[in-house]
């Protein structure tokens, strides 16, 4: 089916179709049934598929993921919803110490087709623990796939691919893009590895993922006014990282800027820059730059506009890679 949809509605369509096509798919999480989820991503699914397949869980993240691990072990394809990013931490033991290791622990005999959906990131004026970007914890963990999406089509296609995958997948949903609208083909499928070149350019490579892809595309449009042609890449998969697509771009442009909401230290941007240095150091014309959240806890909502990377910070970084003195910095 094709039509205009918000990201939240596109995710709902992906879950609906997965439930309809495979009786082994089961959803569980807090308030996903009667309420339809805090962001209404599971709206209407309980009424259509019943309480045996759309399960309202207790307020216990470790219990949600632990139960799903048992379900996957017994052949089901559970899809967990963690209500907010900051609440995934009680489930770290189940995810890192159990889920990620079972395939290896059994010598490849046991597959773990389990998807964990996590609304992530800031920009909606939420309170503490509701705007985190915890992706680096999980991307660091062998045995987990970590993916995200930037627009409604990619959200729908990638979630279907995650549910169909026999590996455990952590699927990060940028909550400030839940209400973005675009045309969606619910029959399209993404893969769980490839980055996307969303905009070709010649002067510098700008890598982003999740919510920051929209900001990166806006920065590329603004840079045109200064005669700068930016290539924008949506990383999509944070583990594994599509090193080939990023390196191929940097070989053409000679410059790299990476941006994300999460703090900089020991982050996905650190891994991307390391990969580029390893793969194409001799083609770099300038030191890579990164534009990220600051190395502090996520601030109160009144300060989040200063915390989150914006257009000016990205364009200043682009200017530095080009050896230009930014008009914004001069002002």
TrEMBL record:
Its cofactor is thiamine diphosphate. The lineage of its organism: Bacteria, Bacillati, Actinomycetota, Actinomycetes, Micrococcales. This is Pyruvate dehydrogenase E1 component beta subunit. Keywords: Oxidoreductase, Pyruvate, Thiamine pyrophosphate. Residues 5-180 form the Transketolase-like pyrimidine-binding domain. GO terms for molecular function: pyruvate dehydrogenase (acetyl-transferring) activity. SUPFAM superfamilies: Thiamin diphosphate-binding fold (THDP-binding), TK C-terminal domain-like. CDD domains: TPP_PYR_E1-PDHc-beta_like (cd07036). The keyword Oxidoreductase applies. PANTHER family: PYRUVATE DEHYDROGENASE E1 COMPONENT BETA SUBUNIT, PYRUVATE DEHYDROGENASE E1 COMPONENT SUBUNIT BETA. Its EC number is 1.2.4.1. It holds the Pfam family Transket_pyr.
């Amino acid at each position: 089916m094709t039509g205009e949809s918000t990201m939240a509605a596109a995710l709902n369509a992906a879950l609906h179709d997965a439930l309809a096509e495979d009786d082994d798919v089961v959803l569980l999480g807090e308030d996903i049934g009667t309420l339809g989820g805090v962001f209404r991503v599971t709206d209407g699914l309980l009424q259509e598929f019943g309480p045996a397949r759309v399960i309202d869980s207790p307020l216990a993240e470790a219990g949600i993921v632990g139960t799903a691990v048992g379900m996957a072990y017994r052949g089901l394809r559970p899809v967990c919803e963690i209500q907010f990013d900051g609440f995934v931490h009680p489930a770290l033991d189940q995810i890192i110490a159990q889920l990620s290791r079972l395939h290896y622990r059994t010598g490849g005999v046991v597959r773990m087709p389990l998807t964990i959906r996590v609304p992530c990131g800031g920009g909606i004026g939420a309170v503490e623990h509701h705007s985190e970007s915890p992706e680096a914890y999980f991307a660091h963990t062998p045995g987990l796939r970590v993916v995200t999406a930037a627009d409604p089509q990619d959200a729908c296609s990638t979630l279907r691919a995650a549910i169909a995958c026999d590996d455990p997948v952590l699927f990060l949903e940028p909550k400030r893009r839940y209400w973005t609208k675009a045309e969606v083909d619910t029959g399209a499928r993404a893969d769980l590895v490839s980055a996307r070149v969303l905009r070709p350019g010649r002067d510098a490579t700008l890598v982003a993922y999740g919510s920051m892809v929209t900001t990166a595309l806006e920065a590329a449009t603004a840079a045109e006014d200064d005669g700068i042609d930016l290539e924008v890449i949506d990383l999509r998969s944070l583990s594994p990282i599509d090193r080939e697509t990023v390196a191929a771009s940097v070989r053409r442009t000679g410059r790299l800027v990476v941006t994300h909401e999460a703090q900089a230290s020991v982050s996905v941007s650190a891994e991307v820059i390391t990969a580029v240095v390893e793969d194409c150091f001799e083609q770099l014309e300038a030191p890579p730059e990164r534009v990220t959240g600051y190395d502090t806890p996520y601030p109160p909502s009144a300060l989040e506009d200063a915390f989150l990377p914006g257009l000016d910070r990205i364009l200043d970084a682009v200017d530095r890679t080009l050896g230009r003195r930014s008009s914004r910095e001069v002002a």
